[in-house]
Amino acid sequence: MTHLRLNRGMAILAMTAATIFAAQAPAYANTLAQVEQAKTLRVAVDLNAPPYGMKDANLHETGSDVETARLFAKDLGVKLEIVPTTQANRIPFLLTNKADVVISSLSITPKRQEVVDFSIPYAAIQSVIAAPKDEDIKTMEDLAGKTVVTARGTTNDANVTRLAPAGTNIVRFENDATAITAVTSGRAHIFSGAPSIIASLNKNLGDNPLETKVVMATAMMGLGVAKNNPELLEKINELVRKNLANGKLNTIFKKFHGTDLPQEVLAEGK
């Protein structure tokens, strides 16, 4: 009887361990075949990161990443499902199968490449420090003793954290929209972000706009695809090359960012 109880107890423990392991194991996004079968492409986009993702006056999703997602879904012949996310949750949403791909101002970094695969670049993003004209900032060292706001979990967060000197007060907000609010409300006036986001911010600053003081880095942006999903990644790369070559990705970028894509990105379509 004791032996039976032990065996039963071990079996219960084994089942419990298996359940815990299954809960912890990542669930990967759909394959290309599953996307085509479901006739839906689920794309994670941060809608609080203008001009990449946002809502217009009628509360419709818009922005360069949203239009890029629409373009690719149309090319695939499937319906687009926008999955709203935050910048900190872009990759977790992919790894927990809440989205098939991420198109959300996601720059390609070695650390991120350990977790997800990236398409070839479809756009590029600069990471800068911006402040009012009369703020005396010429190098990162000039940030010592000053407060800088940024969006948590972004490349801008990583860059200012890595490059700012000791004594810099870095205040992190959950997304670009709340960081922008901190600046427009007067609570802060030095911003670590992308030029396009700063241009959007400046529309609400009147006669005292921010200007770029330091360029911290220029990074390529890619679509995030779950690991071990080669068919979907290959198809996404095909669509990026096609739409760089025909000019559609450049048209989208220029519409929202006011400038053409960098030549390094456009070369991917040749």
How would you portray this structure in words?
The chain is of the alpha/beta class. The protein has 2 domains: 32-122 and 223-269, Periplasmic binding protein-like II (D-Maltodextrin-Binding Protein, domain 2, 3-Layer(aba) Sandwich); 125-219, Periplasmic binding protein-like II (D-Maltodextrin-Binding Protein, domain 2, 3-Layer(aba) Sandwich). The protein contains 11 helices and 12 strands. It has helices spanning 2-24, 32-38, 64-76, 90-95, 110-113, 155-163, 176-184, 195-202, 230-245, 248-257, 263-266; strands spanning 40-46, 54-55, 61-62, 79-85, 101-102, 116-118, 123-132, 147-151, 169-173, 191-193, 210-221, 224-226. The chain has a 5-stranded mixed sheet with strand order 4-1-5-12-6. The protein has a 3-stranded antiparallel sheet with strand order 10-7-11, sandwiched between helices. Helix 7 (176-184) crosses helix 8 (195-202). The longest helix is centred in the N-terminal third of the chain and has 23 residues, at 2-24. It is globular and about 55 Å long. The relative contact order is 0.17.
